[in-house]
User: Fold this.
Amino acid sequence: VKFWTSLFLCAAMTAASAADTNVTNAPVKKFRLPQFNEQGFRTGLLEGDEAQLISQAQIDIKEMHFTVFSGDESNAVDTTLLAPTATIRIPDPQHVVVEGKGRVRVVRTDLDASGSDWTYVHAEKKVFMRKNVHVVFRSEMTDLLK
Assistant:
């Protein structure tokens, strides 16, 4: 939750400084926002070409690259989400949703999935794709059709 709050505050500060210069809601360009756990290990990295504060509960991102790490000393990449456009919705600090109508690609060591009209629920660490879904499994699937 601190991760999303940091993004929100970063965008809000940019918007506030933009208001000081008579520019309405200037976007944050080429940002990198890391996330760490209480032990100091990296758990996430959100990157994008541009983030725009739309409201107190919405941030729009262009060229989103979100990497989820193991959160331990191995610093292993668990999952990567790639999307040309995404919207972060923060109705409350405990409920963060990232979504998009366009394309998304989810990359893991065991699968590569793509689709559109998608939602990522951060608390559950789950991605839901509703259209044009294509999944390639990179692991053995025993007893799949039993």
In short: Helices lie at 2-20. The mean pLDDT is 84.
